[in-house]
Amino acid sequence: MARVKKDDSNIAEIKPSGILTKFEIDKYKLIKNSNMEPINKDHIQVTTYDLKVGEAHFLYNEGKWEKIYIGKNVDRYNDFKNNNGFKRQHEVNYNLLEIAPYSSAIIQLDEIIDTYSECEKENKLIVGRFDLKLQEVSQGLISQQATQVEPFYKGRLFCYIYNFSNDKRVLEFEQAFATIEFMYVSNSDETNNYLIEELKEKNKEKYGNKEYCSGEGINDIRYLHHNGKIPKGLGLLSFLQNDVNNYINTKADEVKNNIYKEINKFKEEVKEKINFRDKLIIAIITIIISVFIAIFTLIFQISNQISNEKSSEKSNASKTESSHETVNNELKLIEIDDRMEGEIIE
Question: How many C-beta neighbours within 10 Å does residue 124 have?
Fold first, then answer.
Protein backbone atom coordinates (compact mmCIF):
# COMPACT_ATOMS: atom_id res chain seq x y z
CA MET A 1 0.00 0.00 0.00
CA ALA A 2 1.47 3.33 -1.04
CA ARG A 3 2.04 5.93 1.69
CA VAL A 4 0.11 9.14 1.16
CA LYS A 5 2.32 12.20 1.45
CA LYS A 6 0.91 14.75 3.85
CA ASP A 7 0.35 18.18 2.35
CA ASP A 8 1.60 20.74 4.91
CA SER A 9 1.89 23.68 2.58
CA ASN A 10 -0.94 25.48 4.35
CA ILE A 11 0.30 24.80 7.87
CA ALA A 12 1.73 27.90 9.53
CA GLU A 13 5.27 27.82 10.81
CA ILE A 14 5.37 26.76 14.46
CA LYS A 15 6.78 29.54 16.60
CA PRO A 16 9.05 28.72 19.55
CA SER A 17 7.57 29.22 23.03
CA GLY A 18 8.27 28.51 26.67
CA ILE A 19 11.65 28.45 28.40
CA LEU A 20 14.74 28.63 26.20
CA THR A 21 17.21 25.73 26.17
CA LYS A 22 20.96 26.09 26.44
CA PHE A 23 21.18 25.80 22.65
CA GLU A 24 18.87 28.78 22.14
CA ILE A 25 20.68 30.80 24.83
CA ASP A 26 23.93 30.20 22.98
CA LYS A 27 22.42 30.69 19.53
CA TYR A 28 20.85 34.07 20.30
CA LYS A 29 23.94 35.27 22.23
CA LEU A 30 21.77 36.33 25.16
CA ILE A 31 24.74 36.23 27.54
CA LYS A 32 28.13 37.79 26.95
CA ASN A 33 31.11 37.91 29.29
CA SER A 34 32.29 41.27 30.56
CA ASN A 35 35.05 41.30 27.94
CA MET A 36 32.43 40.40 25.28
CA GLU A 37 33.98 36.96 24.82
CA PRO A 38 31.82 33.81 24.38
CA ILE A 39 30.13 32.52 27.50
CA ASN A 40 31.72 29.93 29.75
CA LYS A 41 30.21 26.59 28.73
CA ASP A 42 30.84 25.22 32.23
CA HIS A 43 28.26 27.66 33.58
CA ILE A 44 25.42 26.74 31.24
CA GLN A 45 22.82 24.13 32.20
CA VAL A 46 19.99 22.58 30.18
CA THR A 47 17.72 25.63 30.54
CA THR A 48 19.70 28.02 32.80
CA TYR A 49 22.99 29.85 33.09
CA ASP A 50 25.01 30.52 36.27
CA LEU A 51 25.95 34.20 36.58
CA LYS A 52 29.23 35.21 38.24
CA VAL A 53 30.11 37.82 40.85
CA GLY A 54 31.32 40.99 39.09
CA GLU A 55 33.88 43.65 39.93
CA ALA A 56 32.12 46.75 41.32
CA HIS A 57 29.74 46.68 44.30
CA PHE A 58 27.99 48.85 46.88
CA LEU A 59 28.51 47.66 50.45
CA TYR A 60 26.67 48.98 53.52
CA ASN A 61 29.16 49.30 56.38
CA GLU A 62 28.97 51.15 59.73
CA GLY A 63 25.98 53.26 58.77
CA LYS A 64 27.06 54.28 55.28
CA TRP A 65 27.45 52.94 51.76
CA GLU A 66 30.92 52.18 50.38
CA LYS A 67 31.94 51.58 46.76
CA ILE A 68 34.10 48.46 46.68
CA TYR A 69 36.08 47.09 43.73
CA ILE A 70 37.28 43.47 43.63
CA GLY A 71 39.39 41.70 41.02
CA LYS A 72 43.04 41.92 39.99
CA ASN A 73 42.63 44.11 36.91
CA VAL A 74 44.72 47.12 37.95
CA ASP A 75 43.72 49.30 35.01
CA ARG A 76 40.01 48.72 35.64
CA TYR A 77 40.48 49.40 39.36
CA ASN A 78 42.29 52.69 38.70
CA ASP A 79 39.53 53.74 36.31
CA PHE A 80 36.79 52.99 38.89
CA LYS A 81 38.86 54.62 41.63
CA ASN A 82 39.64 57.84 39.80
CA ASN A 83 36.31 58.33 38.07
CA ASN A 84 33.79 56.85 40.51
CA GLY A 85 35.42 56.81 43.95
CA PHE A 86 35.71 53.03 44.37
CA LYS A 87 38.25 51.49 46.76
CA ARG A 88 39.65 48.12 47.77
CA GLN A 89 38.19 46.32 50.78
CA HIS A 90 41.39 44.27 51.21
CA GLU A 91 44.94 45.27 50.45
CA VAL A 92 46.01 41.69 49.72
CA ASN A 93 42.95 39.57 48.88
CA TYR A 94 41.78 41.63 45.91
CA ASN A 95 39.28 39.00 44.80
CA LEU A 96 37.27 38.85 48.04
CA LEU A 97 34.24 40.82 49.17
CA GLU A 98 33.06 40.54 52.80
CA ILE A 99 29.45 41.24 53.79
CA ALA A 100 29.14 41.82 57.54
CA PRO A 101 26.47 40.03 59.64
CA TYR A 102 23.04 41.65 59.25
CA SER A 103 24.43 44.01 56.64
CA SER A 104 23.51 44.63 53.01
CA ALA A 105 25.21 44.91 49.64
CA ILE A 106 24.36 45.60 46.02
CA ILE A 107 26.20 42.96 44.02
CA GLN A 108 27.01 43.52 40.36
CA LEU A 109 26.97 40.36 38.28
CA ASP A 110 29.74 39.99 35.73
CA GLU A 111 27.96 38.96 32.52
CA ILE A 112 26.23 41.31 30.10
CA ILE A 113 22.67 40.24 29.33
CA ASP A 114 21.51 41.07 25.81
CA THR A 115 17.83 40.63 24.99
CA TYR A 116 18.09 43.67 22.70
CA SER A 117 20.10 42.38 19.72
CA GLU A 118 17.93 39.37 18.88
CA CYS A 119 14.81 41.43 19.32
CA GLU A 120 16.13 44.08 16.92
CA LYS A 121 17.33 41.52 14.40
CA GLU A 122 14.65 38.79 14.46
CA ASN A 123 11.70 40.47 16.21
CA LYS A 124 11.97 37.93 19.04
CA LEU A 125 10.77 39.21 22.39
CA ILE A 126 12.65 37.41 25.15
CA VAL A 127 12.62 38.09 28.90
CA GLY A 128 14.72 36.66 31.71
CA ARG A 129 14.33 35.89 35.41
CA PHE A 130 17.18 35.37 37.86
CA ASP A 131 17.79 34.71 41.54
CA LEU A 132 20.48 33.51 43.92
CA LYS A 133 21.77 29.98 43.76
CA LEU A 134 20.39 27.79 46.53
CA GLN A 135 23.80 27.30 48.14
CA GLU A 136 23.97 31.05 48.81
CA VAL A 137 20.49 31.10 50.34
CA SER A 138 21.44 28.22 52.62
CA GLN A 139 24.32 30.37 53.95
CA GLY A 140 21.93 33.11 55.14
CA LEU A 141 21.81 35.38 52.08
CA ILE A 142 18.58 36.54 50.53
CA SER A 143 18.20 38.88 47.57
CA GLN A 144 15.78 41.26 45.96
CA GLN A 145 15.98 42.32 42.36
CA ALA A 146 13.80 43.48 39.49
CA THR A 147 10.88 41.21 38.64
CA GLN A 148 12.37 40.35 35.23
CA VAL A 149 15.09 41.16 32.74
CA GLU A 150 12.95 43.07 30.28
CA PRO A 151 13.00 42.78 26.49
CA PHE A 152 15.27 45.30 24.76
CA TYR A 153 17.76 45.18 27.67
CA LYS A 154 21.50 45.14 27.22
CA GLY A 155 23.65 45.50 30.32
CA ARG A 156 24.67 43.97 33.61
CA LEU A 157 22.40 42.70 36.37
CA PHE A 158 22.40 43.49 40.09
CA CYS A 159 21.26 41.75 43.28
CA TYR A 160 20.29 43.60 46.45
CA ILE A 161 21.69 41.23 49.10
CA TYR A 162 20.83 40.89 52.80
CA ASN A 163 23.05 38.85 55.08
CA PHE A 164 20.72 37.40 57.73
CA SER A 165 23.38 35.16 59.25
CA ASN A 166 25.42 35.80 62.40
CA ASP A 167 28.65 35.44 60.42
CA LYS A 168 30.23 37.50 57.69
CA ARG A 169 29.71 36.18 54.15
CA VAL A 170 32.69 36.20 51.80
CA LEU A 171 32.13 36.37 48.04
CA GLU A 172 34.86 35.78 45.49
CA PHE A 173 35.29 37.48 42.14
CA GLU A 174 33.76 35.40 39.31
CA GLN A 175 32.27 32.74 41.59
CA ALA A 176 28.90 31.32 40.46
CA PHE A 177 26.38 33.35 42.42
CA ALA A 178 23.00 33.54 40.65
CA THR A 179 21.07 31.62 38.01
CA ILE A 180 19.11 33.04 35.05
CA GLU A 181 16.53 31.55 32.69
CA PHE A 182 14.91 33.02 29.56
CA MET A 183 11.39 32.81 28.11
CA TYR A 184 9.66 33.82 24.90
CA VAL A 185 7.03 36.55 25.29
CA SER A 186 4.71 36.07 22.30
CA ASN A 187 4.25 33.91 19.21
CA SER A 188 2.55 36.61 17.17
CA ASP A 189 4.67 38.69 14.77
CA GLU A 190 2.03 41.41 14.74
CA THR A 191 2.03 41.63 18.55
CA ASN A 192 5.81 41.55 18.68
CA ASN A 193 6.15 44.39 16.15
CA TYR A 194 3.78 46.56 18.16
CA LEU A 195 5.54 45.83 21.48
CA ILE A 196 8.99 46.43 19.99
CA GLU A 197 8.02 49.92 18.79
CA GLU A 198 6.61 50.69 22.23
CA LEU A 199 9.78 49.43 23.93
CA LYS A 200 12.00 51.56 21.69
CA GLU A 201 10.18 54.72 22.72
CA LYS A 202 10.20 53.84 26.42
CA ASN A 203 13.89 52.93 26.39
CA LYS A 204 14.82 56.26 24.81
CA GLU A 205 13.13 58.00 27.71
CA LYS A 206 14.56 55.57 30.23
CA TYR A 207 18.17 55.55 29.04
CA GLY A 208 18.53 59.14 27.86
CA ASN A 209 17.66 58.89 24.17
CA LYS A 210 19.43 55.53 23.89
CA GLU A 211 17.75 52.32 22.89
CA TYR A 212 19.26 50.27 25.71
CA CYS A 213 21.30 50.47 28.90
CA SER A 214 24.89 51.58 28.28
CA GLY A 215 26.28 48.47 29.96
CA GLU A 216 28.72 50.41 32.13
CA GLY A 217 27.73 48.39 35.18
CA ILE A 218 26.82 49.59 38.61
CA ASN A 219 26.74 53.24 37.56
CA ASP A 220 23.65 52.38 35.52
CA ILE A 221 21.55 51.73 38.63
CA ARG A 222 19.34 54.75 38.11
CA TYR A 223 17.34 54.47 41.30
CA LEU A 224 20.57 54.62 43.33
CA HIS A 225 21.77 57.76 41.55
CA HIS A 226 18.58 59.76 41.49
CA ASN A 227 19.56 63.41 42.06
CA GLY A 228 23.15 62.23 42.16
CA LYS A 229 22.86 60.59 45.59
CA ILE A 230 22.69 57.03 46.80
CA PRO A 231 19.92 56.46 49.36
CA LYS A 232 20.99 56.40 53.00
CA GLY A 233 20.10 53.82 55.61
CA LEU A 234 19.08 51.03 53.22
CA GLY A 235 21.13 48.41 55.04
CA LEU A 236 19.56 45.93 57.39
CA LEU A 237 22.36 46.71 59.85
CA SER A 238 21.20 50.32 59.87
CA PHE A 239 17.75 49.17 60.86
CA LEU A 240 19.16 47.06 63.65
CA GLN A 241 21.43 49.80 64.93
CA ASN A 242 19.29 52.89 64.49
CA ASP A 243 15.66 52.10 63.85
CA VAL A 244 15.46 49.54 66.65
CA ASN A 245 16.86 52.10 69.10
CA ASN A 246 14.34 54.66 67.88
CA TYR A 247 11.59 52.12 68.20
CA ILE A 248 12.65 51.27 71.75
CA ASN A 249 12.76 54.94 72.70
CA THR A 250 9.36 55.54 71.16
CA LYS A 251 7.87 52.58 73.00
CA ALA A 252 9.61 53.29 76.32
CA ASP A 253 6.74 55.33 77.77
CA GLU A 254 4.23 52.74 76.66
CA VAL A 255 6.25 49.96 78.26
CA LYS A 256 6.72 52.03 81.42
CA ASN A 257 2.98 52.76 81.62
CA ASN A 258 2.18 49.10 81.17
CA ILE A 259 4.60 48.23 83.96
CA TYR A 260 3.02 50.83 86.23
CA LYS A 261 -0.41 49.48 85.41
CA GLU A 262 0.67 45.98 86.31
CA ILE A 263 2.29 47.23 89.52
CA ASN A 264 -0.86 49.17 90.51
CA LYS A 265 -3.00 46.19 89.67
CA PHE A 266 -0.78 44.00 91.84
CA LYS A 267 -0.93 46.55 94.66
CA GLU A 268 -4.73 46.62 94.49
CA GLU A 269 -4.86 42.85 94.58
CA VAL A 270 -2.49 42.79 97.57
CA LYS A 271 -4.48 45.53 99.24
CA GLU A 272 -7.71 43.58 98.76
CA LYS A 273 -6.06 40.49 100.18
CA ILE A 274 -4.69 42.47 103.12
CA ASN A 275 -8.11 44.03 103.77
CA PHE A 276 -9.71 40.62 103.61
CA ARG A 277 -7.06 39.25 105.97
CA ASP A 278 -7.53 42.15 108.37
CA LYS A 279 -11.29 41.70 108.33
CA LEU A 280 -10.87 37.99 108.89
CA ILE A 281 -8.50 38.59 111.82
CA ILE A 282 -10.89 41.14 113.37
CA ALA A 283 -13.78 38.72 112.98
CA ILE A 284 -11.78 35.91 114.56
CA ILE A 285 -10.68 38.16 117.45
CA THR A 286 -14.29 39.30 117.93
CA ILE A 287 -15.47 35.70 118.05
CA ILE A 288 -12.69 34.77 120.48
CA ILE A 289 -13.50 37.76 122.73
CA SER A 290 -17.19 36.92 122.58
CA VAL A 291 -16.44 33.31 123.52
CA PHE A 292 -14.21 34.47 126.38
CA ILE A 293 -16.90 36.88 127.60
CA ALA A 294 -19.51 34.14 127.41
CA ILE A 295 -17.27 31.69 129.25
CA PHE A 296 -16.38 34.32 131.86
CA THR A 297 -20.04 35.21 132.35
CA LEU A 298 -20.94 31.55 132.72
CA ILE A 299 -18.12 31.02 135.22
CA PHE A 300 -19.19 34.11 137.16
CA GLN A 301 -22.79 32.94 137.26
CA ILE A 302 -21.76 29.48 138.42
CA SER A 303 -19.47 31.00 141.05
CA ASN A 304 -22.30 33.22 142.34
CA GLN A 305 -24.65 30.28 142.43
CA ILE A 306 -22.13 28.22 144.41
CA SER A 307 -21.57 31.14 146.78
CA ASN A 308 -25.26 31.57 147.28
CA GLU A 309 -25.70 27.90 147.93
CA LYS A 310 -22.88 27.94 150.50
CA SER A 311 -24.42 30.99 152.21
CA SER A 312 -27.76 29.29 152.32
CA GLU A 313 -26.23 26.18 153.84
CA LYS A 314 -24.45 28.28 156.47
CA SER A 315 -27.68 30.09 157.27
CA ASN A 316 -29.56 26.83 157.62
CA ALA A 317 -26.80 25.43 159.79
CA SER A 318 -26.96 28.49 162.02
CA LYS A 319 -30.72 28.18 162.31
CA THR A 320 -30.42 24.52 163.15
CA GLU A 321 -27.79 25.22 165.79
CA SER A 322 -29.92 27.99 167.24
CA SER A 323 -32.89 25.64 167.38
CA HIS A 324 -30.76 23.04 169.14
CA GLU A 325 -29.63 25.61 171.69
CA THR A 326 -33.22 26.69 172.27
CA VAL A 327 -34.31 23.09 172.77
CA ASN A 328 -31.38 22.46 175.12
CA ASN A 329 -32.22 25.56 177.09
CA GLU A 330 -35.83 24.48 177.35
CA LEU A 331 -34.74 21.04 178.45
CA LYS A 332 -32.50 22.56 181.08
CA LEU A 333 -35.37 24.73 182.34
CA ILE A 334 -37.62 21.70 182.51
CA GLU A 335 -34.92 19.84 184.38
CA ILE A 336 -34.55 22.74 186.85
CA ASP A 337 -38.32 22.90 187.31
CA ASP A 338 -38.40 19.21 188.05
CA ARG A 339 -35.69 19.53 190.63
CA MET A 340 -37.44 22.39 192.40
CA GLU A 341 -40.71 20.50 192.45
CA GLY A 342 -38.91 17.54 193.95
CA GLU A 343 -37.35 19.58 196.68
CA ILE A 344 -40.65 21.17 197.53
CA ILE A 345 -42.33 17.85 197.81
CA GLU A 346 -39.66 16.63 200.16
Answer: 22
